[in-house]
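Task: sequence design from structure.
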């Protein structure tokens, strides 16, 4: 999970967590790993989002916005279909 969280390898934003980022992470995991392993990683995402929120000082109610997407809900601003993620989308939360 730790290696797949930051696919752009920008250390300064590694601990950042948002619904958009969680949804992009799930998409990356599903494209990169085998299904059985992906399910195990995706199951960790709710706790991962909470864990990242603590050291960054993200308010619990803001971290909780990530949970539906960590549990598989599609993120509406992510893009069209599985092949067109908008990695640089302007996200309004």
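Answer:
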């Amino acid at each position: 999970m730790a290696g797949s969280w930051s696919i752009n390898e920008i250390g300064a934003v590694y601990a950042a967590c948002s619904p958009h980022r969680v949804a992009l992470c799930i998409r990356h995991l599903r494209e990169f790993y085998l299904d059985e392993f992906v399910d195990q990683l995706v199951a960790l995402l709710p706790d991962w989002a909470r864990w990242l929120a603590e050291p960054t000082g993200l308010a619990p109610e803001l971290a909780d916005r990530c949970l539906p997407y960590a549990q598989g809900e599609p993120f509406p601003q992510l893009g069209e279909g599985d092949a067109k993620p908008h990695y640089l989308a302007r996200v309004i939360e």
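The chain is about 50% helix and 5% strand.
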